[in-house]
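Form 12-C: Joint structure prediction
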Amino acid sequence: MKRAQNTTPIQIFNRLPVLRAERGLSRQDLADAVGVNFQTIGYLERGDYHPSLELAFKLSEFFNLPIEAIFSRTPFKPLSEAVYRPEQDSTKDRETA
Amino acid sequence: MTQTRPEPLNLKLSRITPAWARPQRARRILVIAMFTLPFAAGTLAGLLSSGANAWPIRVLAVLGVLAGLVCYAWLVGATSARADMPDDYLDERERGQRDQVYRLAFINLMGLIALGFVISRFTPAFERLPSETLIGLLFFVGMLMPTTVLAWIEPDPVQD
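Section 2 - Result
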């Protein structure tokens, strides 16, 4: 039986560069913390490599954030916008509803 | 008492590899040199070794092979020997990359064997070569191929 072919590659967005910069970590620091090569962190940040569930959990535990705060199937809003304008968005949502 | 495992020998090559050999462009030049130098020296030796001054040509052939081996050692060092490392020494991305490299190396090797078969079938190119030379050549090309493929495809690391 032929496998169903998925022609569109899955794109996963991440906030790793922002989270790393916020904490003043180098790629090597983060790599040491989660037990990978520092180049793997670069691949993850550029979206050239998608992490396994195990690595995603390690990153989640390291940053003390839920996985969906680090990785997403849709592009993230800038963190500053998410922090300072959440009320406006929720008001808009209520109005449209 | 915990025992620390000895560092693999090929990982030590990483420390003696010059920094200029690490960028992708340099690695690709080394790959070309690794195959070209022994091939050119061997071909020259094969063509000219029947004369009275055979030994300088043989020395040249040995030097060509040694130059190829030096290129290989630098390639192993420049790729941190990741093409030949067991699972414990690699992270998940590197393990996937190593497996991809082995797949590509197998395809390349089969392509070269098929090409050699076609050449030997329709031309007398391999008639003068003894069978042990051909088998040895196949062995070494097969052995070098995973590191060669990794050195060729691995992009330069992005700086912090």
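Section 3 - Comments
Chain B touches chain A at residues 90-94, 157-158, 160 (CB under 8 Å). The helical segments of chain B are 9-16, 24-48, 54-78, 92-122, 131-153.
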